[in-house]
Amino acid sequence: MLNLIFKLFISLTYAVLLIACSGSTESLNSSSSNGSAIISWQSPSRNTDGSALTNLSGHMIYYGLSADDLNNSLSASNVGLNVHVIENLKTRTIYYFAITSINSDDVESSYSPIVSKYIF
């Protein structure tokens, strides 16, 4: 039964856009943890069955150093806010990001397409 609910919730119109990043201007031979990434996304408005998505309760942002291991996560529970800043990222490093939607029944969609960004 959970699989059926899950399939009905996943949106086909989900998109994630990585729009900016920043970091230190330190020596090329050093790395620090003061880079950041600003991500923006478009929330889904429909379920995969075409019905209106009326119970969206938030998003989860996943990120990590490998597309196969997004081992960090942040909750974005303000449904009307589709931008988040992730701080304290290691500079001179590629990070991978994905986002999911969560409905009021705490059912989480699958990952959006994974995007990557080099943090300067």
Main pleated sheet: 4 strands, antiparallel
| Gyration radius, rounded | 16 Å
**Percentage of residues in helical conformation:** under 10%
CATH first level: Mainly Beta
Q: Strands of the biggest beta sheet: in what spatial order?
A: 4-3-6-7
Q: Give the CATH topology.
A: Immunoglobulin-like
By helix and strand content, what is the structural category? mainly beta
Query: How many domain units?
Result: 1
Relevant CATH superfamily:
Immunoglobulins
Principal-axis shape: elongated
Low-pLDDT windows of residues:
1-31
Q: How many helix segments?
A: 1
Order of helices and strands: HEEEEEEE
Tell me the β content.
35-45%
CATH architecture: Sandwich
DSSP, total strands: 7
Overall pLDDT score: 76
Question: Kindly, what is the distance between the CA atoms of the first and last residues, rounded to a whole number of angstroms?
Answer: 45 Å
Report on this structure:
- It is a single chain.
- With 120 residues, the chain is mostly beta strands.
- It has a single domain (14-119), classed as Sandwich (Immunoglobulin-like), CATH 2.60.40.10.
- The protein contains 1 helix and 7 strands, in the order αβββββββ.
- It has one helix spanning 2-9, and strands at 15-22, 35-42, 56-64, 72-76, 83-89, 93-103, 115-119.
- The longest helix is centred in the first third of the chain and has 8 residues, at 2-9.
- The chain is elongated, with a radius of gyration of 16 Å.
- Mean pLDDT is 76; it is low at 1-31.
